[in-house]
Write a structure and sequence with these properties.
The chain folds into 3 domains: 105 residues, no CATH class; 168 residues, Citrate Synthase, domain 1; 106 residues, Cytochrome p450-Terp, domain 2, CATH 1.10.230.10. Helix content is 61%, strand content 2%. It has 390 residues and is mainly alpha-helical. Keywords: Transferase.
Length: 390
């Protein structure tokens, strides 16, 4: 599913670029380092704002639906308000209104170092895994896919859900967000431990992941638990985890979480469905193994297309330029690990796949449009691609 969110439409109606993303501004303006305190002050105001917005604009038409949208996974259909990020066809995902390059400039200042330190220490306090989850992971067969293990472990953490207990006890709906907050913070804190445990079981004979160090950041603790001490790898994980921290609401994983959560499933159950979506083959690519020549790779791509399968891309089909998440990782790799075999393979794909796909477009459309018209379209595409690479 590639469902375009309505956040930007709402922002235009309200007349402000970043109106849905008030949390960033609130944290900047707040002297509190405690995220829950910030939210306690913010949420009633947001509830009132949204209520007023719906009263004023509830009947406003924001788009049309055509048959292709319905059959095409709702692509291009504005059908969901997702406040923390949105997908721009030209700029990629914008987090709270800002593109990745803009965030790279903001991050040293927003949030403050005190706020960052507070949240890392808070996650450190919540990170320990319950014994039943550890036992389950230790008893999984080694041939069970890591994503299956990950999803199962997250689901099993549901036993710890404060929201599920509070809901069963009849908590007032105005308090739901507090329980959701606690569960979400617990889950975020535990995810690196679950991941590291699976990794150690599969690749390091079940060796211990070690203890969380409350003086280290989330990514640093994660790489330590994996068993890596290279500062460059830790920095790469900081980059990788940051740019994947949110992903607009219309993709398979985020939309699934929204959908399951709407049934008041707790964050553990909702997030486990996210992982099941991410485990789909269109989120990955077949392992070719070893080094391959450009010719071998080109043949592999053509064989894949000619067999009726697709070549999985990086992010959404709606994007018209290279995903900036890939771009910033590529820049990091070119600087720090240009000879890494996996990066070299990905770089080959980056170089070859677009030209194969464009040539395939020519073959498919030349009868309908004529050679000259197709050639003009392809020349424009080549020029766009060349300007990106330069």
């Amino acid at each position: 599913m590639s469902l375009i969110t309505a956040s930007r439409m709402c922002a235009r109606i309200l007349g402000t670029k970043n109106s849905p993303c008030v949390l960033i501004a609130a944290r900047q303006a707040s002297s509190s380092v405690n995220l829950k305190d910030v939210l306690s002050n913010l949420i009633p105001k947001e509830q009132a704002r949204i209520k007023n917005f719906k009263q004023q604009h509830g009947k406003t038409v924001i788009g049309q639906i055509i048959v292709d949208m319905v059959y095409g996974g709702m692509r291009g259909m504005k059908g969901l308000v997702y406040e923390t990020s949105g997908l721009d066809p030209d700029e990629g995902t914008r987090f709270c209104g800002y593109s990745i390059p803009e965030w790279q400039k903001l991050l040293p200042k927003v949030p403050t170092q005190e706020q960052v330190s507070w949240i890392f220490k808070e996650w450190a306090k919540r990170a320990a895994l319950p014994s039943h989850v550890v036992t389950m992971l230790d008893n999984f067969p080694t041939n069970l896919h890591p994503m299956s293990q990950f999803s199962a472990a997250i689901t099993a953490l549901n036993r710890e859900s404060g929201f599920a207990r509070a809901y069963a006890e009849g908590v007032n709906r105005s308090k739901y967000w507090e329980m959701i907050y606690e569960d979400s913070m617990d889950l975020i804190a535990k995810l690196p431990c679950v991941t590291a445990k699976i990794y150690r079981n599969l690749y390091h004979e079940g060796s211990n992941i070690g203890a969380i160090n409350s003086n280290l950041d989330w990514s640093h603790n994660f790489t330590n638990m994996l068993g890596y001490t290279d500062a460059q790898f830790t920095e790469l994980m900081r980059l990788y985890l940051t740019i994947h921290s949110d992903h607009e609401g219309g993709n398979v994983s985020a939309h699934t979480s929204y959908l399951v959560g709407s049934a008041l499933s707790d964050p553990y159950l909702s997030f486990s469905t996210v992982m099941n979506g991410l485990a789909g083959p269109l989120h990955g690519l077949k392992d070719l193994g070893g080094e391959v020549s450009d010719e071998q790779l080109r043949d592999y791509i053509w064989n894949t297309l000619n067999s009726g399968r697709v070549v999985p891309g990086y992010d959404h089909a709606v994007l018209r330029k290279t995903d900036p998440r890939y771009t910033c990782q590529r820049e990091f790799a070119l600087k720090h690990l240009p000879n890494d075999p996996m990066f070299k393979l990905v770089a080959q794909f980056y170089k070859i796949v677009p030209y194969v796909l464009l040539y395939r477009v020519k073959l498919l459309w030349k009868e309908a449009l004529g050679d000259r018209r197709v050639d003009r379209v392809l020349r424009l595409a080549w020029q766009t691609r060349a300007s990106e690479e330069s």
